[in-house]
Write a structure and sequence with these properties.
It is built from five helices and no strands. The chain is mostly helical. It is rod-shaped and about 85 Å long. It starts with a helix and ends with a helix. Its main location: mitochondrion. Keywords: Mitochondrion, Mitochondrion nucleoid, Transit peptide. InterPro entries: UQCC2 (IPR037698). It is found in: Mitochondrion matrix, Mitochondrion nucleoid. This is Mitochondrial nucleoid factor 1.
Length: about 100
C-alpha cells in the first residue's frame, strides 16, 4: 500500500509546477519536501499505524462487533415498523395454534 501511495505522490509532484516567483511559499516545493521526508526509503517505506482507530474513531474490535451477524439482525429488527412487528408476532402465534 505504501508503494501505491508513493507512486501517487510522485505523480502529484510531477504534475504540480514549481513557481520560482513564490520563494519560500511555493506549494510545489513544499509537496516535494514532504514527500521526500515521508518516503525516505521510496516504495519500501513502511507506515506504522499510530492509532488503533480509523477516521471514524471506531476500533477494529468495535467494527467486528457491530458487523457481527447477531447485531445486524437486531438492527434489522429495530428498523421494522410497529405494524410489521405485530403482524409477525401474531402470525407466529397463529401458526403455533394451528400446530396444536
Amino acid at each position: 500500500m505504501a508503494a501505491t501511495r508513493y507512486r501517487r505522490f510522485l505523480k502529484l509532484c510531477e504534475e504540480w509546477p514549481v513557481e520560482e516567483t513564490k520563494r519560500q511559499r511555493d506549494l510545489g516545493i513544499f509537496l516535494r519536501q514532504r514527500v521526500a521526508q515521508a518516503f525516505r526509503e521510496g516504495e519500501n517505506t513502511q507506515y506504522p499505524r499510530l492509532k488503533e482507530t480509523s477516521f471514524t474513531g471506531v476500533t477494529v474490535q468495535d467494527c467486528k462487533m457491530i458487523l457481527a451477524t447477531d447485531i445486524l439482525k437486531q438492527m434489522e429488527d429495530m428498523k421494522k415498523g410497529t405494524w410489521k412487528k405485530l403482524r409477525e408476532r401474531f402470525s407466529a402465534k397463529k401458526s403455533e395454534e394451528d400446530l396444536k
